[in-house]
Amino acid sequence: MYTGIVKVNTTNTDLKPETQEGLISDRSQLKPEDFEISELMALNTERGVVLNWKPVNITDIKYKIYRGKEPLDSLERLQKATFLGESIKPYFLDTDPIPDEPVYYGVSVYDIQTNKEYSDLKFRKSYISHTYKKPVIDYQYLEYLPDSLIAYQVNKNTIQLFWVDAGPNVKFYKVYRYDRPISNDRLLERAKYLGNAQSGSIGFIDKDLEPGRYFYAVFPVISSNQELKVFYANRTYTTFGIIIHGKPEKKKEEHRELQTESEGINTNIKNIIIRVENKNNVRITWDYNTENANKIKILIYRSPIQIRKYEDLKENSTYLGEFPLVAGVYVDRNLEKGSYYYNFIEYNTETNEITAFYYLKKPIEVLMDSQQSLNQEKKELLENKEKELEKKQEQEQKDFDQKQEEQEIVTS
Length: 412
Description:
The protein is of the alpha+beta class. Among the domains are: 22-131, Immunoglobulins (Immunoglobulin-like), CATH 2.60.40.10; 142-244, Immunoglobulin-like, CATH 2.60.40. It has helices spanning 16-19, 75-80, 185-190, 313-316, 370-411, and strands spanning 5-8, 38-45, 48-54, 61-68, 82-87, 91-94, 102-111, 116-118, 127-131, 147-155, 158-164, 170-178, 192-198, 203-206, 212-222, 242-244, 269-277, 281-288, 296-303, 318-324, 329-332, 338-348, 353-360, 364-366. Strand 22 and strand 23 form a beta hairpin. It is elongated, with a radius of gyration of 29 Å.
């Protein structure tokens, strides 16, 4: 294992004291209706149905998600419905939706302090009707679209966007923000334009946010200066809302460096090994936690300097690719002579959340560039051929001498 790898804690554990701001912990004055969600909405994506809702501003609660063929307007019908799972955040992904058939989705609130579930759901507020139709991508746009668009909360009032760049056909990207998924032209008209991100960049930072729920859209502008306003979940718009609870500080503060992970926090990557092979290739291998293996993907970046902050990646690194956690290996080939640092980002494909960020303490040294390596390989190949030729000539001479001796014996 390469011991110079550090994992930075990106979970909400370091934000916990801040995210409690604005939340109610005292139950004495609360009414049952205070434990009801609102603004439940559903989005069809390639991976399933994404549910978002306006959260309940109470501490120590979780959400229970149901799906049924009947309206979820009574406890009896709720008990007959399919229980899909729980979430501590105001969104959920149904990975196995029923296609082309109207169903009802509902979300109840469970109070962890009192062990009570508030299951009196209201139509178009805490339960809705929805039909899943899997989106179909128009392949004429595919070469222009970013991929794996994700948003996560870096600190109290900052959200970071990441995506996989579409390539040289895109001049730059326009970035928008709204309080609900920007999934059509009508919602885009209401969204706020935030600015541009250059082609080749891997993200965008939105700072000093007020309390609220935020969704984003990223649209490519191509060589003809046309903005492609096409709506594809997790490609051009985010599907999970990021909640900001506390107000930004009035005084301007420098963004703190993320702290390294403390003992006991779960990680999905295990035993990363990085080594130089064949003189100018770097082989990266890793083991992994099998519990979440199919949900986690790895983004790998290479840079000439050490990078410890997310936001520094877009300007100082080269994006190498996105890989399934279960791949377990990547080879960075044909490198020039020099020192290289690597960063690894792991994220959950179901929730679009960053789960870990890694950086190297010490660089990997490549002592021979690709041309030198090629010349060395040619030299070694020529030397081997010369040796083979010498051996062949020696063997032919031996065979000739042996035949001469045999002829002399016969003649005599």
